[in-house]
Structure formats: structure tokens, C-alpha cells
Specification:
By secondary structure, the chain is α/β, with parallel strands linked by helices. It has 12 helices and 17 strands. The strands form 5 sheets. A 7-stranded mixed beta sheet has the order 2-10-9-8-7-3-6, with helices on both faces. It has a 4-stranded antiparallel beta sheet with strand order 13-14-17-16. α3 packs parallel to α9 and α4 packs parallel to α5. It starts with 15 loop residues before the first helix and ends with a helix. The structure holds D-malate. The site of D-malate (MLT) has 6 residues, from loops.
Length: 407
């Protein structure tokens, strides 16, 4: 008799963005011909930067000739990309990250989901609320939580992110082992200052804890005083893994390329308290379960660091930030309290009532899709998240419709 992993039965029925897609499909089936504006899932709409497209074409041509054809590449990524990342994203900002500490992958969703495999079954895990649901669900699947009740899983230490703390949680008074942080934040759009991140790094060092720092949205930071990487904070190399992605930075959601940084200075501990470096554990996991991102896609990602690539990628994030400004201004004008959207592509709006009801109202009356805050956790109840990833035309049309319905 094949037994199932019963932890899966603790999960909520479907993944948040699948549930939203299901509701939108059902609405469209009942209302054919209604044109829906999608400001829900954070999926890019603008084409890849021309520098990336050029590199992609050239790499495809290499694959077409016997002399330059490549089969399996290194699982952790080609040196040309790992070196470009270490130099441009870290060393240039004073963060001592080496190329062999960078693991290229097919997405931060997968990496933030998979990383928990290298840690013990029993851990105290601190998870912000609201939060990107992948962090929670993958720990549920792995059996690190109890049952779900009243919007929360038993056994997790929730870090409440509210208007009172500016959606940036402070370290808890009690010790925890594993901490998930994401800045600029998905879903609230909040950013963390150097001092706030330094408090977390200190806490992790004191408690021999580990921070999983999701920096997938760092390219949207415009305020020069904000850190873009946790490794800009002294001591973070010893207590943090960082995740980054080309998805939102350069429009790679459909082409897939991201990376995870696991510094060699990081350690976990055995039951007996012996320190074990994490870099070889992640190397073992990654090389066993992953065969690398395709060569043409890695060449396209490398092109993001060329002079034209950098300018074109910045123009893309500027474009989405300008959309976010339109969204912010509209909702503020309608009298709602808004967070995010200035150093982030997400605008978090306090709608003061049931998030899913508000979602349904906007879908049915304005034909605009947003993300209900409650889908990100109990503290998200009463909020919606509006994504700035769309064409200017669609954002403006969406805001026109929202204005009409909410006025
Ligand atoms: C989101 O909308 O939160 C993101 O698109 C999800 C993701 O990047 O996986």
C-alpha cells in the first residue's frame, strides 16, 4: 500500500495564485467578451532587454554548430555568469561574495522552496505574516508544522507585519532557528533600512540562527540609503543565504533564471552541536537534483551586466515603477492608505474589509484582478496587493475602472 505524505493534507486547498486564476477563469467563462485587466500575479509583460535577446540569439547559433555546441553545463552555472554576478551585484557594492558562492538556478520560487531540505525536521521557524506563500507551504509539506487553524499553522513563529511597525518586523524576544525575510517585500512593498537588517543579523549571530533573505525585488530600490543585499550588513556572510532573480529585474519570468548565494562562512549544527558548513550541503543538493539552466539563457542573463543591458534593465524597472506611481496615486486619491510602490513593484492597500470579498467586487464590477491580502496570511486580511507589472495602457485602464467602482 503506497502511503502519501499526509503533510500535504494540511495545506490549504490550492496555491494562492492558482486559486486566483481559477476564479478569473470561472468569471470569464460566465462573462465571455468581458475584458479583464490583470494586476494580480507579479508577472512581467514587457519584452526582454534587446541586449539579452542579442545574447540569446548568438548562443542559440553556437548550439547549432558542432564546434560550439554544449551539452550539460555545470549544475551551479557557468563561470561567466557566476563571475558577472559576484562582481556586479556584490563586490561592486562592498559585499565580499565570490563566484563559487553563487548557485545559478531556474527561479527563486524553486530555491526558496527547496532550501529547507538541508535543515533538520524539527526547527523553530520565524515567518512574516503576510508572506509569499511558498515559504510556509514548503515547510508544511516537509512536516515542520502542525494543523492549519484560523489562518495559521501551528508550530510556526509568525512575525506580524502591520501598519504599526511599517510592515517590517523586529526580531522576536525568543530564539528561533530559521528566519524568512523578503525586502523589498512581497506582498507589502515595504523596504528595510540598514539598521533594521543589522538588528536581524545581530539576532541571528547571537542565536546561531540562519536568515533566508529573498531579494528578488532589489532592482526596484531607488532610495540610495537602502541596502540592496543583506551582505552589505557586516557579519551577514556568517548568517544569511540570499536569493535573487532575473525574473522581475530583466523580464525573465518566462525564460527562467535566478541565483542563490550560499557563503562559505555559513554554518549549521549537528545534534551534538558540531558546526557544519552549509556550502557543501547545498552543493550536494543542487548537483544531485538540478542539471543547470540552459546555456543560451545564462548568456542572456550575463548580458544584463553589459553597459547596454544594465541601462535597458533599469529602463524596464523604471517603467514598472512609473506604473506603481499611477496605482499609488489613484488609491491614495480615493482615500485609501497605501504602502509600497516606490522602491517596489507592489502596492499594498488597506481596504478595511474582507480581502476576498473586495477581490470579487473588483473582478465582477471593474473586471480588474488584484491579489487579496488574506491569501498571504492573517495579517493580510483587510488589504489587497496591486501589481505594477503590466502595460501602461492596462494600468491606466485598470485605475479608471477602479476609480469608477470605488468612488
Ligand atoms: C507574486 O505575484 O507574488 C509573484 O509573481 C510570485 C512569484 O514570483 O512566484
Amino acid at each position: 500500500m503506497i502511503r502519501i505524505n499526509e503533510n500535504y493534507t494540511k495545506l490549504q486547498a490550492s496555491y494562492l495564485f492558482s486559486e486566483i486564476a481559477r476564479r478569473v477563469r470561472a468569471y470569464q467563462a460566465e462573462n465571455p467578451g468581458k475584458n479583464v485587466v490583470r494586476l494580480g500575479i507579479g508577472d512581467v509583460t514587457e519584452p526582454l532587454p534587446p541586449a539579452c535577446v542579442g545574447a540569446l540569439h548568438a548562443a542559440v547559433d553556437e548550439m547549432a554548430a558542432r564546434e560550439s555546441f554544449r551539452g550539460y553545463g555545470p549544475e551551479q552555472g557557468y563561470d561567466f555568469l557566476r563571475e558577472a554576478i559576484a562582481k556586479n551585484d556584490y563586490q561592486s557594492r562592498g559585499a565580499a561574495i565570490e563566484a563559487d558562492e553563487v548557485f545559478v538556478s531556474d527561479g527563486s520560487k524553486c530555491d526558496t522552496a527547496n532550501v529547507q531540505e538541508i535543515f533538520a525536521d524539527k526547527l523553530t521557524i520565524a515567518i512574516p505574516d503576510p508572506v509569499y506563500p511558498v515559504y510556509v507551504d514548503t515547510n508544511v509539506m516537509a512536516g515542520r508544522t502542525g494543523k492549519h487553524s484560523k489562518g495559521r499553522y501551528k508550530g510556526l513563529a509568525y512575525l506580524e507585519c502591520t501598519e504599526a511597525n511599517g510592515f517590517v518586523p523586529a526580531p522576536p524576544p525568543e530564539p528561533v532557528d530559521l528566519i524568512y525575510l523578503c525586502f523589498p517585500n512581497n506582498p507589502t512593498g515595504a523596504t528595510a533600512t540598514r539598521e533594521q537588517l543589522a538588528a536581524w543579523v545581530d539576532y541571528a549571530r547571537t542565536n546561531k540562527a540562519l536568515i533566508l533573505f529573498d531579494a528578488a525585488y532589489e532592482a526596484f530600490i531607488r532610495d540610495p540609503s537602502l541596502p540592496r543585499s543583506i551582505y552589505e550588513i557586516e557579519g551577514a556572510r556568517e548568517v544569511a543565504i540570499e536569493f535573487r532573480s532575473f525574473s522581475k529585474t530583466a523580464g525573465f519570468t518566462g525564460t527562467r533564471c535566478a541565483f542563490t548565494v550560499v557563503p562559505k562562512a555559513l554554518h549549521g549544527y549537528t545534534k551534538k552541536g558540531e558546526a557544519v558548513p552549509l556550502h557543501p550541503l547545498w552543493t550536494r543538493r543542487h548537483t544531485t537534483k538540478f542539471n543547470g539552466v540552459s546555456y543560451p539563457i545564462q548568456r542572456a542573463a550575463e548580458a544584463v551586466y553589459s553597459d547596454e543591458g544594465r541601462a535597458q534593465a533599469t529602463a524596464l524597472t523604471d517603467f514598472y515603477l512609473a506604473n506603481a506611481a499611477v496605482i499609488r496615486a489613484t488609491l491614495a486619491e480615493l482615500g485609501y492608505t497605501v504602502t509600497g510602490g516606490d522602491n517596489s513593484p507592489y502596492v499594498w492597500v488597506n481596504v478595511g474589509k474582507d480581502s476576498w470579498k473586495f477581490f470579487d467586487k473588483l473582478l465582477k464590477r471593474a473586471q480588474v484582478v488584484v491579489t487579496p491580502g488574506a491569501g498571504f496570511g492573517r495579517c493580510g486580511q483587510g488589504y489587497i496587493r496591486i501589481s505594477a507589472f503590466n502595460s501602461r495602457e492596462n494600468v491606466e485602464e485598470g485605475m479608471r475602472r477602479i476609480r469608477k467602482v470605488l468612488k
